[in-house]
């Protein structure tokens, strides 16, 4: 066990070199092909890749391939030319066809326009050397390799060197033995040619036809060193045992600048390299594995890298001015870590502090551990509190404190200085305490799950509650005295005038889970969160909160900028540090993140690094010049926003919109595409904006967009249609005027006639009023018969003493009353018969309709020794208004019962195809011939003439009106031997 502690104590991890993150692109994630021949960056900021079968442009987010060249051979090689002059050229494998990259696009041009990279002359084969890489081959059939410089050209042939002056065209043989194998270690800086001689450990220098040997760092001449040189970019890289250096020629001396340690460079076949100094990125092109982008970072992530232990970090203390120490005994530097005292892995990493003598105080297994500095932190004591759980440890303003929980009760213990066994005061708390800050000598800010309690030490009471209901995570005081606090999933807040004011969040609301913040020397706030590290200028933020205008813009750092993990940690004390050497330190899920804020760059596109040159309409790619023209009938269009930007696009807030009334800014994603759906014809402006600096200044660009109209949408067509409509209206008005004039004449002629008609109508209305009155009397008349019958039976019942007779009367009264009740239920419909429709929604049986009325009059007829028979067809059904027919049947059967004694009433039905015939025959007194003629004549008059009532009964008049309303008829006949037969013809 002691040996294990000893090994752990001696454990030391060294991380050398600059941190970097790797992005790999191949055919699986956007690259059209895995073979890359060369890499170059043009004057506009776009990166170009030479590949098999195509030329590819990369803008930091997307690859745009160009392969629509009318060439037989599309196998392209190395770039050469002049970047500043916007002339980048590349030949195909046959070196007969040339692609010129200019104005941000490639095009096939005549090789006469560009100096050829080789050829045949004097029976010799020449080939220009424009790049030296690890896989270069010097082909035996090539007689002479040459290099073109500003002053002249060097020809390497026949194991020698010939220099040709550019102005005089004179040739000069350099007196050197130079075998072709030495070309592998050739590189150029400016107008100087260098050849590293590994055998003789020296550097050959050629300048304007003269040679010399110079002293250089030994790495240049090391046999294991690999040299990469590209003439068009002027970049030279020295690779030694996985370490990559950049070579420069300054003050006539060769100098190496260390870039990074990349062990895989010795294993990978790299055909192309390019270092983007502005963005601090190294591009490696492989002939088989695609493109690797190594993003160099000034963030350092320090890990302990112990076996079977995680790298999750929470609390630590600043130690030694340039490191952080944790309770596990691990001391973290920016690029190294070491164990300074033995301690087992801790699962309680959230609280640690130092007392006045430098002892470590932390929480472990519900006890306070005190590790003594004078023993090298190897010995420690423990303090526990009976029946209480230690929740947190705090040190603020010279006070040492601990939050404890007992059941549902929470307490804050204030110790007597750093003597944790001596409790000076116990403060009961309503909620659990998660953060403590001593505001001044009197006030304590106690951050809890329910807000910040302001506690007075002098008054020994809680003065107020700030941010009620907010779950407080951390309370921080910045250098200007402002108090900020973070919360659990509720955002970041500033305490202003004793009130909690929420700080505007980022556009993705990642700051809802902010952990802690630190202020650097330039008044920038660095805020850790669950998803990245944010930077914002404090003064700009405070001014925005004072007078909100526009959006507050945060710069977010993630794995793309060199972090090993986007998730930082909080809920600890302390959870951020400022070291004496100026470094800031934040704990994360994979170690402590160290960085010097002055070295961390922010990247923004230049105001001119913006191009709208491509669009896709109807599935076809088109090149734009000064505007976008959309033909009528297009469904959608995609406008590509070309911005060479090689950092996180979200940090520049790239947005676009069309300048319509209801348009709003649309966030542009990594595809950098703005989509235009179908809009009304007209001329618009496409507005694009992006952030160009840390001050929050946006650059705005405008691009005209014209949508073609159909012929019927043009102004000419609208004017034509408007004129035609006005003309038609005028014609109609004129025709109407003429018509009205003619009609006026007719009206004058018919005025007298209309006066007569109005007088007659007035009389008809008066008679109609009389009719309505008589109709009501008829309804009353229909009810009178059963009511009178019930009254007579009641009188007979009163006079009879025979029980059987009484029972008979009771039974008759009951049946008649029941049928009368049913009849009265339909009186509302009965009074509105003339308003109702003739047809009904559902079919019903004629038999059932007759049976209803038979039952109503059965008892009345029985008293007169008369029987009513319903012989109607059970299967005969119709879809006419039931209420109308009920009223008709009611009146006719009522009349039959009144006029028949000691007889019978028979009701039958028949179907004739177009009519349903109902026959109601009685054996009563019958009707006179005059009455029959009168009622039959009513059907001939119908509604065209006013019906004059005679004293023959109102009921039959109503029946006539109802049947006329239903387009039906009724005929009257003498029944044999006596009585009346009434035939009702119902049209269906």
UniProtKB/TrEMBL annotation:
Species of provenance: Chryseobacterium cucumeris
CDD domains, sorted: HisKA
Any single Pfam family the record assigns to this protein: HATPase_c
Enzyme Commission identifier(s): 2.7.13.3
Phylogenetic lineage: Bacteria, Pseudomonadati, Bacteroidota, Flavobacteriia, Flavobacteriales
Domain of life: Bacteria
Signal peptide start and end residues: 1-17
Domain Histidine kinase: 778-988
Catalytic activity: ATP + protein L-histidine = ADP + protein N-phospho-L-histidine
Chain ranges passing through the membrane: 710-733
UniProtKB keywords: Membrane, Phosphoprotein, Signal, Transmembrane, Transmembrane helix
Name under which the protein is recorded: histidine kinase
